[in-house]
Every structure is written in C-alpha cells, then in structure tokens.
Task: structure prediction
Amino acid sequence: MRLLYSNENRLIVANVRNVVEAAGIEVVLNNEFAAGGAGELSPFEVWPELWVVNDADYERATRLIENSLSARNAVPWRCINCGEDNDPAFETCWKCGHDQPGSRKEGI
Ligand SMILES: [Zn+2]
Result:
C-alpha cells in the first residue's frame, strides 16, 4: 500500500480513483466520509486519500493521474500556421501538422 493521491476536494479524488481503476489498478479510498457534507467547512477536515494496493502499480497510476489532471486543466490551442483550434492533447496541429507553440519540441 502506498499513498497515491490526496486532495481536499472529494470529487477530484473520486475522479482520480475512476481514472486509475479504469486502467485495472486496485486502489483504496481512505477518509472518504470524514469531511462534512457539500459546502460545509470542518475545522478538523481530513482530506480523502487514495492508496494504491500494489506498490508496483504506483508509477503507472501516477502517470495516469498526471495525464488526467493536465488534460482537464489545459485549454485548446490555436495553430499559428492555419488558425485551427486544437485539442490540448495534441502536440501538433491535426489539420496541417504544425507544432504546437511552446511545445517541448521547440525547446521553449
Ligand atoms: Zn495547423
């Protein structure tokens, strides 16, 4: 057992749990009901914790979470070559193949 992820927002933790479980990784959620109801603030609030059961899955689960969270927070980018709006998951324009501005390929 190894602590995988923790966040004060139970909805985010639940979402992360879904992502990891969808990949076939066994996880356990601790402190799920420790916090108050929605909108309540507790002075002794305990963050829900997501634990990975098999330590061997830890690295893979971490990557899944990073990918999931970064994809959600990212915004579409506009190709400087053809002006097409592209999904943040793509590093190159789906229409013309131009590299995303600021992508790692350009070394910025
Ligand atoms: Zn383009």
Observations:
- Residues 79, 81-82, 84, 93, 95-96, 98 surround zinc ion (CB under 6 Å).
